[in-house]
Amino acid sequence: MLKNLIASLPRGLVIAALCAAPLAQAQAQGQAPSGRIGFVFTERLMTESKMAKAADAKLASEFSSRQKAVEEAAERFNAARKKFENEANSLNEGERGRRTRDLINLEADWKRMHNLFQEDLMQRKNEERAAIAQKAYKLLEQVAAEEKLDAVLAEAAWVNPRIDITDKILKLLDASK
Fold first, then answer.
1. Span 36-63+114-175: which CATH code?
2. Phi (first) and psi of residue 49, to 5 degrees
3. Three-state helix/strand/coil letters over the chain
4. CA geometry: angle 90, 94, 99, nearest 5 deg
5. For 63-109, how does the pLDDT look when each residue is reduced to its tens digit (9 = 90+)?
6. Does 2 have pLDDT greater than 50?
């Protein structure tokens, strides 16, 4: 039963509870807590750091021409669709069938182009985020060692601002560029 209860809880909550249990036990026994915990908002590192903003600008310039091509393909498809809808009743059966196939092919080309663009963009975003995460992790280890932290959490249901080390990591990440 306990196993089912734990399985139904959010992962971050279970991790926080497991990390906090020894501290609570030590306090209840009147001992000084033996472990220290820190917390870092990883999403802030991925959005607010200078490294992240530079990566976003790099990706925007790298993919701007492809994005424009995808948008132009969408405009061509929509214009062709509207034109077909307006003229469909006046077309003979053969012409209507040919234009329908052309429209279907145009839509398929646009969707293929859009999906490929999205996949490539997400792959590059993940590559850039991985580089940021790698650098941030090294800095996180450094801060944890300096502050003698026993654990640093990245997910939690609630965090006391006293243990939040995100700003320290952001400053170091921005300074280390």
1. 3.30.910.20
2. -75, 155
3. CHHHHHHHCCHHHHHHHHHHHHHHHHHHCCCCCCCCEEECCHHHHHHHCHHHHHHHHHHHHHHHHHHHHHHHHHHHHHHHHHHHHHHHHHCCHHHHHHHHHHHHHHHHHHHHHHHHHHHHHHHHHHHHHHHHHHHHHHHHHHHHHHCCCCEEECCCCCCCHHHECHHHHHHHHHHCC
4. 75
5. 999 999 999 999 999 999 999 999 988 989 999 999 999 999 999 99
6. no
The 10s digit of each residue's pLDDT in 34-62 is 679 999 999 999 999 999 999 999 999 99
Q: Residue ranges of the domains in the chain? A: 36-63+114-175
Please name every residue paired with 151 in a beta bridge, in sequence order, or none if there are none. 37
Whole-angstrom distance, CA of residue 96 vs CA of residue 118? 33
Threshold 0.85, pTM exceeds: no
